[in-house]
Amino acid sequence: MAETVFVPVAAAQPSVEELLARLSVVTATVPVPLRNLAYWDTATGSWAVEPGEFRLSMGRSSRDLPITATFRIDSAAEPRSAGC
Description:
The protein is of the alpha+beta class and 84 residues long.
């Protein structure tokens, strides 16, 4: 007679990390407000965003950033919020 073996649900299910490791491509939308890219322009006395390429890195900590995406701002932009 076979014995019944108890398997916890957590052990029977793959973790999120295991599921993501099986995927070759993941698409995500991450909104980045312009004010998060702004600097104080002393020449104009206002917040500004310079055109260029920006890199967004994500991970478990600042020392472990395995996910990276780049995006471009093609022309100088002015953040809508005055209180950056």
